[in-house]
Structure formats: C-alpha cells, structure tokens
# Entry
Amino acid sequence: MYILGLESSCDETSAAIVEMSEGKRRICANIIASQIDIHRLYGGVVPEIAGRAHIEAVTRITHEALDTAGLTLRDIGLCAVTSHPGLIGALLVGVNFGKSLAFANNIPLVGVDHVRGHIAAAYLEYPDLVPPFLGVVLSGGHTSFYIVRDYTDFEEIGATRDDAAGEAFDKIGRVIGLPYPGGAALDKLAYEGDKKAYKLPSPALAGDTLDFSFSGLKTAALNCIHNAEQKGEEIHRADLAASFTGVIADGFAAKLKMALKQTGIKTVVLAGGVSANSHLRAAAQAVCDKRGVRLCLPPLSLCGDNAAMIAAQGYYEFLAGQRDGTDLNASAV
# Structure
C-alpha cells in the first residue's frame, strides 16, 4: 500500500509517500519545506506566520512528493495526516488539506498522533523492529517514556511536568546569543566547554518516578547569566553550554536506566527532534550497551518533523481499524 503522509504541526510542512506492507517499509518520497529562515528573524516559531507558510507550501510539496515517487493520487491507498498535538493553526492547514484531498479522491483518511509518528520513524530505518519496546520521545514539546506494547498500544510511564527538553535547549541557546534553532547550535558549542564549570540542577526528578522538570533548570541557567551580567562578568558560553547539556544528558541517562530496570524491556527507540542531539544519543547508547539492550536511533533526517513518520504510523492505525472522515478536527493537545 502507498500512503500519502502530511505533517504541519509546527514549522515544517512535509508531504511523503511511503510504501508499507507486511514485509516492506520503504520511503518513496519525503519532501520537507522548512521555515527556519523565516522564524530565525524572530528567534523562535511565530504561530501565525507558521500557519500562513503551511498554506503556501502544502499543495506544492504534495505534488512534488507524488512526482518524486513516480505516482499519482490514483495509486494512493491511504492518506495519513497529523491531527494532534501541535500549533492549532498549523495543524488545521494539514488536516483540512488532507480531508479535502481524501474526500475528493475517495481515499481512506486517518488522523495521526504526532508523538506516535516520531516513534514510527524507527520502523522505516529498522525493517525488523516490532513491538514491544520502550519508546522515548525527546522533542520541543515532549520528553516522554512509553511502553509500546503494539503498534497502536502505548502506555506513558514518564513525562516532563512542565517544559520539554527541546524548549529548554532552544531558550538557553537564544539567551546566550546562539543562532536559531538554539538547540542545534548548543549541541555543537557544548563540545568546546567544561561540563563542570557551572553547577546546575538536574531535570530528572528525584525519587521513584520517570518524570522530568525543566523549568527549574532553565531558571537556574537564566539566573546564572543574569547574575554575571549584573556583576559585569562575562559568561563563558561554551562552559555554560557544556554544563547545561551535560546535566540534561546525565538526568536522561539516569531515567533511562530506571525505565529499563522497571520494565525489563530489551529494545529502546529514541525519537523526536531532540534525539538528534549528539550528547543525548551518546548517553542513550552508553546506557543500552552496558545493559545489553538494543538501541534503535532513526537517522537525523527522520528525527525532526516529517511526513514519512506520519505515513508509517498511519498505516498501523489503519490496520487497527481507525477510519476518519470529514469531521476530523485538529487538536493542540
């Protein structure tokens, strides 16, 4: 089956064609129209601008995906579109476009949870990957642990109680003057500093919980910066980047160890935009290697928001019996 995937939850418009069957998981096309250059002017995503940019791009990139795959809409057996969570204005563009296209061409439609889509990216890189496994999603809006019992059966066993890792990285990167997106620049800069230079609190909550809290860490880092400014001192950006990144990586590794011990699961999928962070990938690999656990890491091209992952998850939602119609709506949560 050829699935048309559509993704517009934040600041990337994406259309993809994925071929899925019992023995095949293949990306035929995965087109992404990035808005980074637009939002860089403002230091972060502006929802109204994002929505308008999606409107301008979605038709063009859908045609481009079909042309790249060498297919027409008559070949498409399913349309899968991100319906939640995300920026509501941005989501509505993809949902309404997907509904209209599916209805006009008599193509089945399924709305897809964006977070599940991130985990499904691993299926496209690892043909032999099947549930159950531990799914870990690190992104701008989520820092969560899931037991993935089946392709559509998820149990959240840990999450952030406030901000997410990606938002924290971007915020501190922006404050110390790094180019947008701050998280990617912070990742590189951290290699140049001393992770022990600044003492910062761990985002991993104490006790027998798999939850995180990044608000206190962000506040501590901001206070460190502002206190130095008030004293006329200069913050060593590389040291702060290394300290900030290091405490997040250490906290993540601690919770990953706890999750593996509690569940006894022997396969981990690490996904989401922040899973591209090289320090977090290394921390996860070290934990898994020590415990003899398989770690599945989607390639960097599938870590960020993309429609191929939405198409992959949409296929399994369809097999599980999900069908959506013209009443499908977007939801921010």
About this structure: The chain has two domains: 2-126+304-319, 133-302. The beta strands are 2-7, 12-21, 24-34, 76-84, 109-113, 133-138, 143-150, 153-159, 267-271, 294-296. The chain has ten helices and ten strands.
